[in-house]
Design brief:
The chain is mostly beta strands and 128 residues long. The chain is built from no helices and eleven strands. The protein has strands at residues 3-7, 10-13, 18-25, 34-39, 46-51, 58-60, 68-73, 78-83, 92-98, 117-118, 122-127. The strands form two sheets. Strands 2, 4, 5, 6, 9, 10 and 11 form a seven-stranded mixed β-sheet that branches. A hairpin with a 4-residue loop joins strand 7 (68-73) and strand 8 (78-83).
Amino acid sequence: QVQLVESGGGLVQAGGSLRLSCAASGRTFSRNALGWFRQAPGKEREFVAAVGWSDGNQRYADSVKGRYAISRDNAKNTVYLQMNNLKPEDTAVYYCAARLRGLANMFASMIETDYDSWGQGTQVTVSS
């Protein structure tokens, strides 16, 4: 059974940094794209960042470009999201997702419905 578990969330002041981790189990994900999404209170879930099977295949939401960095460690079956210069508007529950099905499942996607497996989320709160 595929399972994704996020960690690393918390409370941080504006301008601070956090590093989220998502550990995958149940199968190897080295050939699958992995992504991060977030959902703020009262808003729909939105794309944040994604990485394909190759680290060179990355995509970012415009709102986080230059501040966030996604990376993966296939040996640990883990994907990371380094978040720098955090802003209050970054406050949300952050979800990790894996793209398991489809012929293009190795490529990063910004589309939520391209992802088949989701973690439970980790809360990130940025105070002003």
